[in-house]
Each structure stands twice: as structure tokens, then as C-alpha cells.
Design a protein that fits this description.
Two copies of one chain form a homodimer.
Chain A: H1 14-19, E1 27-34, E2 40-47, H2 48-57, E3 61-64, E4 69-72, E5 81-88, E6 95-101, E7 117-118
Parallel strand pairs in A: 1-6
Antiparallel strand pairs in A: 1-2, 3-4, 5-6
């Protein structure tokens, strides 16, 4: 299944869609959490279109704020993320995805998680 | 220890401080994750001052965007969060805190996590 539009992996109802609030730039923060290790891997942003693609394909698609373009995570690096579960918070202004992380990891540095640095370690 | 300024719980070095990027509103997103269950509890925002208070006290202090004021989580509800570990991501524009959640939970609805709703459950 690669998001051919006929059978979305996860169905977003109209009520759910209306519960999700995008900010002034049309974006909502999306947290990716490893479904196996439960590590928080990264936070990036989704536009309405990238959220729809993510749910349709069952694969994380972000909006790159630095490049101002859709970012199908892993298309270049191979480190893509399959979606096992999609959640939204009480205010509807943050998304949480439980994912299966492919490749080396989530981070462009080669680390498994983007949160590899701990405050106080340099003290 | 209640943040009397003499002995911060977690020491933020100058280099670390310079690695953290606040957005145009002077805020950075902060994810709170339960250190025991590894559940993602909530995402809220921190100002530089609330981050300093959080690290000094070892207790989560956010910036409330709706009330435009410092928000010492749990002062009203009792549901405060002790910080066990503070992390920052590769870009320095998101913080991750491993916390011990007190009280009923993180969410104002009474749920343990703010991410209690799953997309597709209503389908």
C-alpha cells in the first residue's frame, strides 16, 4: 500500500479533522515516538496536506519549515517511519505518532533519536 | 529543594543555553514524557524564564500561551511534574523532559496523558 488514494491506512473523520488546530502558519507540531522502545525520536511539523498524506500512506510526511516543502521522511535517507498509531491531544494542537523507525534512526546526525543530548552533561 | 537559587537541580551551561533556539515569540516547545511508563504526557511551551525555573527547581514550569503567564504545573491542580532528565534536540528547537507525574495525571480533563484520543477510533 503506497497511498494510492483508494484505501487510507488511517481514517480521519470529519469530527476529528475539525478537532485539530493548525497554527497561523497552517502547521501543527507532530511528535514521533518509537512504538517498540518508546523513545521520543523527533518533533517536526505537519501541514494539513502532509497530515492527510501521512494517514493515507501510513508513513510519516512532514512539512519542512526550512525548505518550505513536503518532506516524505526517508525518501532521501531511507530512514522512513511507518505509522502504527496516530493520536491528538486535548487541545487538538499537537499530534503524536507511534512509529516503526526504519534505517539508522530518526536524526540527520546519524543518532537514533534527535534528543541525544542531555542538559547538564557538559557541566 | 524549592528553587531558592542557591543550588539548581540541573545546571544549564552557557554552551547549552546558546544551543537552544526560542521562536519569534520567545518560546520553545517542551515535551513531557513519563519516566516510568514512557508515555508522552503533553506538549506545552517554555520561555527562557520558565526553562530556567524548571531546571532550578527540578519541576516543570511552562509558559501559558492562553493566559500569557508563567505556569508552574500543578500549583492549582496538584498534578505537578518532577524533572528526572532534560534533553534538547539536534536543532535545539525542542526540549524533552523525563518526568515523574504527580496527582491524577498531566491532562486538565483528568486523563493521565493529554494524548488520550486516537485518530480513527470514531471511524
Amino acid at each position: 500500500m503506497s497511498g494510492d488514494g483508494t484505501s487510507p491506512k488511517i481514517l480521519l473523520t470529519e469530527a476529528e479533522r475539525n478537532s485539530i488546530t493548525f497554527n497561523g502558519d497552517g502547521l501543527v507540531p507532530a511528535i514521533a515516538q518509537d512504538a517498540t522502545t518508546m523513545e521520543v525520536l523527533m518533533l517536526a511539523w505537519m501541514s494539513r496536506e502532509s497530515l492527510d498524506m501521512t494517514l493515507a500512506e501510513g508513513r510519516m510526511v512532514y512539512w519542512s519549515r526550512s525548505r518550505s516543502e513536503l518532506w516524505r521522511k526517508g525518501d532521501t535517507s531511507g530512514d522512513h517511519q511507518d505509522v502504527l498509531e496516530a493520536r491528538y491531544d486535548c487541545d487538538g494542537d499537537t499530534l503524536l505518532f507511534l512509529v516503526h523507525q526504519h534505517g539508522r534512526g530518526a536524526c540527520h546526525t546519524g543518532e537514533r533519536t534527535c534528543f541525544f543530548r542531555r542538559i547538564g552533561d557538559d557541566a
